[in-house]
Design goal:
Blueprint: E1 2-7, H1 13-26, E2 31-35, H2 43-46, H3 52-61, E3 63-66, H4 80-87, E4 92-98, E5 111-117, E6 127-130, E7 134-137, H5 143-159, E8 164-169, H6 177-189, E9 196-201, H7 202-211, E10 218-221, H8 223-236, E11 244-248, E12 253-257, H9 274-286, H10 290-306, H11 320-330
Parallel strand pairs: 1-2, 1-3, 3-12, 5-10, 8-9, 8-10
Antiparallel strand pairs: 4-5, 4-11, 6-7, 11-12
Helix pairs in contact: 1-9, 1-11, 5-6, 7-8, 9-10, 10-11
Length: 331
């Protein structure tokens, strides 16, 4: 029995989290859920969207899965996602981008993985005002962080039969910060002769992902570029409702959907739970429940290809729970 911390989140979070639990339990996985709450609705009670007991629950169980949590734009509290990553040193953000037959898209047979550094870059949150004139945000890039994220990408490629790792950067302009990332990536790649290595400037990467996504396999990059390009990748395979994510560190792992909390449709049963369900598939593989993960993945392929029970964002009329039930039946 695996004890997993469940953070349902807010907005559509509780709905997609419940759908995910239905599917995981139908797969036969031996999971005991410890549910804890985080998000804006916790501020009045605890004075923070991320109470200490939530972090302690993740530390105790070592594995967590969370629904989306609202982050205010331009004001308010710091992102719960960023805080979790920094507090638990979850230095890897892993986002597979994979297409399914039956999902409306102009692309087919996409299967690439984005490995995003998770703890520094502009997301380190080092900002200050310059009087009333402006504001400055500091881009922090360190060699140890570069080494471990590229090492993870190379190891991931080797363990999963991947042939190419591409480092994404803007070292032609940011010669010191991105230059350090690129230099370090090349050094790490030298120790992994079984995997091909290349590098690409981030703006060219954005264009090439739209024009030639089949050319890429594993892509490793600093924090901001990973945030942007993983969303671009989601657009290639049906949208953010499809894409899973994992935040992985030495001691802990937190799995999550990469989309937002969509408060405008909360409670309406319109949300697509695929992203969180696919995140659960990643989680099951991480804890050794590989057969259950494969059952869910095969069920997703069957339901998508039939096209009879798709959520609204994919052109269907199914509710969140109807889609989850279709997956359970397919298993």
């Amino acid at each position: 029995m695996h004890k997993i911390t469940l953070i349902p989140g807010d907005g559509i979070g509780p709905e997609v989290s419940k759908a995910m639990q239905m599917v995981v339990e139908a797969s036969g996985a031996q999971i005991e859920w410890e549910e804890v709450e985080a998000g804006a609705h916790q501020i009045e009670k605890y004075g923070t969207p991320l109470p200490d007991h939530v972090i302690e629950a993740v530390k105790k169980n070592k594995i967590a899965i969370k629904g989306p949590i609202t982050t205010p734009v331009g004001k308010g509290f710091k992102s719960v996602n960023v805080t979790l990553r920094q507090t638990l040193d979850l230095y890897v953000n892993l986002r597979p981008i994979k297409s399914f037959k039956g999902i409306p898209s102009r692309y087919e047979n996409i299967d690439l993985v984005i490995v995003r550094e998770n703890t520094e870059d502009l997301y380190a949150g080092i900002e200050h005002k310059i009087g009333d004139y402006g504001a400055e945000s500091i881009k922090l890039i360190t060699k140890p962080a570069c080494e471990r994220i590229v090492e993870f990408a190379m190891d991931y490629a080797e363990k999963n039969g991947r042939k190419l790792v591409t480092a994404i950067h803007k070292a032609n302009i940011m010669k010191l910060s991105d230059g350090l990332f690129l230099e370090t990536a090349r050094e790490v790649a030298e120790a992994h002769k079984d995997v091909d290595f290349s590098d690409l400037i981030v703006d060219a990467a954005a264009m090439n992902l739209v024009m030639y996504p089949e050319r890429y396999d594993v892509m490793v990059m600093p924090n901001l570029y990973g945030d942007i390009l993983s969303d671009l990748g989601a657009g290639l395979v049906g949208g953010l409702g499809m894409i899973p994510g994992a935040n992985i560190g030495k001691d802990y792992a937190v799995f999550e959907a990469v989309h937002g909390s969509a408060p405008q449709i909360a409670g309406l049963q319109k949300a697509n739970p695929t992203a969180l369900i696919q995140s659960a598939v990643m989680m099951l593989r991480h804890i050794g429940e590989k057969e259950c993960a494969e059952k869910i993945e095969k069920a997703l392929a069957v339901v998508f290809e039939k096209g009879e029970c798709l959520t609204e964002d994919l052109g269907g009329k199914a509710t969140t729970f109807q889609f989850a039930e279709a997956l359970c039946n397919a298993m």
